[in-house]
Amino acid sequence: MKRKTMFDDGYQEHLVEGAEFFGEEGIPGLLDLDNAEVPSNLTAFPKARTAKDKSGYVHFYVHDICFRQIFSATDKYLDVLKQYHGVITPDPTIVIGKSKCLHATSVYMSRAVGYYLQKQGIPVIANVRWGDEKSYPFAFLGIPKHSIVCVSTHGAIKKDSSNGNIVRECFAKGLRVMLETIEPRTVLVYGRMPDDIFGPYLDKYTFVRYPSEFEKSRKKGGS
To answer: What is the mean pLDDT of residues 143-153?
Structure first.
């Protein structure tokens, strides 16, 4: 009797069973469920298990190494995530100048986990992350129009004249494209909202800001 061979390509195909795929990159789409709400607060994924306050949504705006297991062992965290009101989809790093394939993979895995959590009955808000213009064709795929979305400015709007402020400029340009493409009803912002970037859109879109962990730590330190 031959032993059955299990092939595992590392992309956890069960996460996207039944999903609709978009674009040449085949980005899985989130379900058009209207059960997401504006969170009362956000809890970082590494603190989700031990946090006393289980209200609000869980976010992944931390170093990638702190949440890589959500991709490889998603089921392991379902019981914890179900204790919260919802989850903002993972935020894998998209490094400007790196391979387009890597960028597309980051978007794919974020949507895949989000779709799977929705299938388990967990309300989900899409995190939106982009790089330069090369990422636009797939960075916004799979997100229903007029939904609540979330972006992080932490580490993305820092002024750095040594490289021509390229990261900040890419965020500003991509924000405009994202808003025009998705037309979100509400945009959650994790981190600061400088007027020169967000000011032109404040009259047209609804924004809700949440201070980053870095901001909170600085306030506690009195600096």
So the answer is: 97
- Across all residues in the chain, what is the average pLDDT? 91
Measured CA distances, 198 to 84, 119, 173, 203, 213 (Å): 29, 33, 11, 10, 21
Average pLDDT over residues 177-202: 97
pLDDT the model gives residue 25: 95
Tokens representing residue 85 in the block: 């009101």
Q: Is the pLDDT of residue 162 over 80?
A: no
pTM, 2 dp? 0.91
